[in-house]
Each structure stands twice: as C-alpha cells, then as structure tokens.
Amino acid sequence: MTVTDTARDSVAAALEQGKVESHLHPTGSYDVADHAAPTGREEIWRFTPLKRLKGLASDAVFNAPTTEVTHVAPEGVRVETVTGDEAQALRGVSGYKPATLFGARVLSEVPDTLLVDVPAETEVVEPIIVNLTGTDAENTEAGHVVLRFGNFSKAVVVLRHTGSAALAQVVEIRVGDSAQVSVVSLQDWADDATHLTHTEALVGRDAAYKHTAISFGGDLVRMDANVRYSAPGGSAEMLGLYFADEGQHLEHRLFADHNQPRTSSNVMYKGALQGEGAHTVWIGNVLIRKEAEGIETYEENRNLILTDGTLCDSVPNLEIETGEIAGAGHASATARFDDEQLFYLRSRGIDEKEAQRLVVHGFFNDLIRKIGVPAIEEQLVTTVETELAKNLTGKLL
C-alpha cells in the first residue's frame, strides 16, 4: 500500500466516524509526560523562533520568580497569590487541558496562582490593574494566573507586563453566566524580554467577554488567546494591536471554539511593522462544532508595512462542522501605505512625514477606541507616536 493510499484510508475512516482529524481538535493532557518538546516542524510552532525562547517551550528550569506583582483593586475584589490546595483547585478552572508541553509544565510545576476574584453580582466601576514587572531577563520563570468573574458581575481587568523577564505563563479566565467582562493584556516589555503565554477563557450563558491583546515591547512575545463556551448565548470580542520594530518577533494566535449553540465571536487584530527583521505572526482559528447551531463568527487581521526588511504572516482558518449557522467569515490583508490617502493629505499642504504619521494613527484609531479603558487608550496613542519617532530619520514606504 502506498503512502497516498494510507492517507486516503485514514481520511475515509475519520469521515465514517463523523470527524476529520485537524489541528483544531487537539488532545490535551495534564500529564507532562504526554507532551513532547516542540521541534519547529509542528503546525502550531512553525512560525516561532524556538532558539530565542530560552527553553520556555521545552526544558527551561522554572526558577523562583523575580517578576514583581502589584495591583490596584477596589474593596470587595480579591487579588491574591494563593498556594496549596486552593492553588491546585484552580488548575483547569477554565476547562483548559494543555496541548503543549509548556502549558502542562506550568500547571504541574508552578506552586502558586495569582487569583483575581470578582464576586457574583458585583459591578466594578474602575479597572482592576495588575502590574507584573520583570527585573531579570535571564531568569527563566513561569506563572499561573486565574481571573474569575461571578454570575452577573461587571468588571475590567488589566494585566500590565513591563520590565525585563523570561516568562512562561498560563492565564485562565472563567466568566460566569450573564457577566460582562473585559480583560486587557498589555505587553509593554523592555527590549530584552521573552514572553510565552497562553490565555484560555470559558464564557458562561448569555455572558459577554472581551479580550484585548496589546504587544509593543519585548524581543519575542507569543500569545495564544482561546475562548470556549460553557452554555448557549455567550459572546466573545477579541481585539489585538501590535507594533513590531527591528528584530522583534510578535506572534498572536487565536482560537474561538464554538462548542455551544447560539454563541458568537468577533475578532479584529491590527499590526504595523518597521525595521529590518521585524516579524509578526497572526493565526486566527475558528472551529464550529456540529452541535454549535445558530452561531455567528467573523475574524479580521490587517497589517501595515512601514519599511523594507519586515516579514508578516497572517493565516485565518475556519473549520465548519454544521451548516446550521447564522454566519461565518474572515478577512486578512497586508499592505503598504495607501497612496490615495497620502496624496489627499499631501494635496492639502501636509508634508510627507506628517501625512504618513496621520495615516498610521488613523489605521489604529478605530481599534483603540474599542478598548473601553480611557487610560490605556491614551497610552496607546502616545506609544504609537513613540514607535513612529524611531523611524523619523529612516524612510517609510
């Protein structure tokens, strides 16, 4: 039998069982021994420069953490590092079952959990700010974070990552029924930081969940952001904004797993690249399972190339197992400056550099306004300006 015949028979057998094998159906395990170290040939690792990860994805020693944690939270919201049985009970609270070695290692080897707990029916007016400040880029460490929102609660949590670190991280989010929740993960690291992080969210019945990933700093940042549903009626809005400079690798992977009927997901990520060797990766995965009738989903990624020498990978994937859906689609585009926009601005007396600056701000502005945290929105406008200033002496495309 030829290899082709074998593959054909395997697909036929899978079809007979009602399911075709795909990377969107990973088999997870809490047992570290069930996971192999990535080689870079795997679908989920093929874009990631593993040699720059300092072993975080494989066999790096998870040392005692040097990343400092502080927070600002109102009375009634619990923000605390927990240990022992309580920490163990929080492993997998989002339904997360690791499909990677580093995820399994974090849940198995990290002894404590940073818990943010918003009680049921609690409405938090001001954002809950959790600062994770790295102090040593050579100290490989790992962390487990749990954000738990009770039924009918309303809150915004900001995870702000700054400083120098080499951090492997698992963030689990459990959104209670009818809760309205926003989580902002800000990667504003120093230039020498390495951050490998997986975020898993479980959205309850009729709950609204928004996740915003913002990556500017760091030598290498890879973030997986997954969402699943525990009951019908849940919605997820997944936003992202990134700006890669010379030599930076910024990678974002999304997975919306529609495993319940009448759920929805909307994904919008935007990025800009400038400088030799700047590399961004966006992978948008959506799985609509057989039982997920009446769902609606759309994912979009837009990238703006500012200089020569950059590399941008954008890959949307959509797997549909039922035709009984309200709608599903995706869009991806990578381009240089819009000549018509620049011509319009130049024709009104605006010089070339200022015209380019205005186009970049316009590119990001609609997404920034969706974040819903004024302090973060103002910071991002300033950060975009700072990033552009790095290239003022160079030539934008």
Automatic annotation (TrEMBL):
Pfam families registered for this protein in UniProt: SUFBD_core
Stated family: Belongs to the iron-sulfur cluster assembly SufBD family.
GO biological process, one term: iron-sulfur cluster assembly
InterPro entries: Fe-S_cluster_assembly_SufBD (IPR055346), SUF_FeS_clus_asmbl_SufBD_core (IPR000825), SUF_FeS_clus_asmbl_SufBD_sf (IPR037284), SUF_FeS_clus_asmbl_SufD (IPR011542)
Protein name according to UniProt: Fe-S cluster assembly protein SufD
Protein source organism: Nocardioides jishulii
Residue ranges annotated for the SUF system FeS cluster assembly SufBD core domain, each copy included: 136-363
Entry superkingdom: Bacteria
